[in-house]
Specification:
heterodimer; A: 96 residues; mainly beta; 6-stranded antiparallel beta sheet; 6 strands; B: 27 residues; mainly alpha; 1 helix; 0% strand
Chain lengths: 96, 27
């Protein structure tokens, strides 16, 4: 099966430094937030691990977020298929 | 905030979105 594995399965992709600097200097908009999603693809042939860029994540700000929206989001592969073999999948408590 | 990790709300929204687009994915 395909599954999200481990505590790092969904993490923030930090924004590019130049975009962050412009925002922090008051010269640009807040950079859009994206997630890196690590999916173990047991159904692939051969099985592998794929990372996806998911976002932008909208509707959240400095005050926290309970109403995140992915209305305009896309899912883009960040690796070539098979680049990370199944044996290198993230540690999962249920593996033991 | 721009470097903060994803909030629980954001994480849930991402997981829900992935499962919507890829129904076979298990969490």
């Amino acid at each position: 099966v395909d599954f999200l594995s481990g505590t790092s399965a969904v993490e923030l992709i930090e924004p590019p430094k130049d975009v962050a600097q412009r925002f922090l200097n008051g010269d640009g908009p807040a950079p859009p937030r994206f997630a890196r999603v690590t999916l173990v693809r047991g159904s692939a042939d051969p099985p592998d691990v794929m990372e996806y860029k998911v976002g932008p994540i909208l509707g959240c700000g400095t005050a926290g977020c309970d109403t995140a929206s992915l209305e305009t989001a896309t899912i883009e592969p960040m690796l070539a298929p098979g680049a990370v073999p199944f044996q290198k999948r993230p540690y999962e408590l249920s593996d033991v | 905030w721009i470097f903060d990790s994803l909030s629980p709300g954001e994480t849930k929204a991402v997981v829900d979105f992935v499962k919507l687009k890829m129904p076979a994915v298990e969490t």
